[in-house]
Every structure is written in structure tokens, then in C-alpha cells.
Amino acid sequence: MSSQRVVLVTGGNRGIGRAIAERFVREGYKVAVTARSGEGPDGTLTVRADVTDAAALDAAFTEVEQQLGPVEIVVANAGITKDTLLLRMSEDDFDSVVATNLGGTFRVVKRASKGMLRARFGRVILISSVVGLYGSAGQVNYSASKSALVGFARSLTRELGGRGITANVVAPGFIETDMTAELPEETQKQYKASIPAGRFATPDEVAGVVTWLASDDSGYISGAVIPVDGGLGMGH
What we know:
The protein has 236 residues and is an alpha/beta fold. The protein contains 8 helices and 7 strands; from the N terminus they run βαββαβαβααβαααβ.
């Protein structure tokens, strides 16, 4: 039964990651989340890990495996931003965003793939962003780290596709989170004017696509980029 599968969501204590974890819980999966601080939603196992630390991640995976079983579905969601224009962007602004958003995905998926290969089943779901392919001024670091996930998923598909493992990318647009709520009303209006749907997404609309990609229904989809952006980027 697919819903008895074990899911690990990185950065599952807030925002989109939390909504994804909640949705998996509602659908009956066994759910663990990694968090640097705070707790995942009710019904989840929270493990402490920073995705830039391979040893901490390994320990977190071991804890999940002992308590819930081998991780069959991994959602690489943990990410950071350090937005600024290119000429003002420091080496650290660039390196730390890439180390978390891309390097973190590499570390998490590498560790998860061991169990998936043994089980000959796996779902790798990478949370990108509309700006990964659409671009955004002041986000050279973030945009580069998020577009890189497309090449990652497609290469992984070619490597592991014959072993019952899929790798896909979900690219959310503007989502109703604490972050967008803090934007000035005028800015929100401008953003909404550029979105064909005329509104921001709810976090659960992203979560629904993620849980579908984790299900048996999507077993023949791999290397895809699925935009959840109201038509803003149209997948580019």
C-alpha cells in the first residue's frame, strides 16, 4: 500500500515544507521532517539536521530508518535566500545559497538513494522555484541553485530510472506564506498582475502536486519539471 511508505521532507518545520509534510500525514504516509530548529507538524517525526552537514544528515536518516523504516520518498525542500544584485553579492552570499539549495539536495538524495536501490523503489522530489527557469533580478545565486535541480533530476533519472526510482522537480511560483504576507500591498498587487491566475497559491496546492508525484499514479513520470505557479513561468 503506497500510503504506508516512509517520507522524509527536508525543512519540514515551516512554509511549503510544512504543508507538504501535513499533506503526507493526512494521506496516511509515515512522515519524518528535518529541521534545524522548531518542530514538524503533528504526526511527524522531527529529526535535527542541517543539509550542509553530511554527518548530521546521515545520523538523521539512521534515526528515521530505526523509528519508521527505510526512506522511500524524499522531498528536498530545505532552502535559503541571500538576495542582492550581482555586483554587491559576496562570495559567501553565493556559496552558502548554493551549498544549501544544491549541495543539500545532493547530500540528502545520495543518502536516500542507498535504501531506494535496495528496495528497487524510490521517489525523489526536488522543490525548485519559478525563478529557477524564469530568472529574477537580485537572485543570481538562488536562481542558479534552483535551475541546477533540473539537471540533477534528469541525470538521476538516467542513472536510476531502471531501478523503479523516479526524480522530478516541482517549481512553485508565489505562495501564500509568512514571507509573501510581509510584502507591501502595492508589491503584492504588482506580482498578482503578472500571474495569469491573478492570485498566489496556497501551500496545499503545492503539497498536492508533491503527494501525487509520490504516488503510484505517477510511476512513469521522471525528469519532469512541474510548475505550480498560476501560469507565471509556464514551465519555461
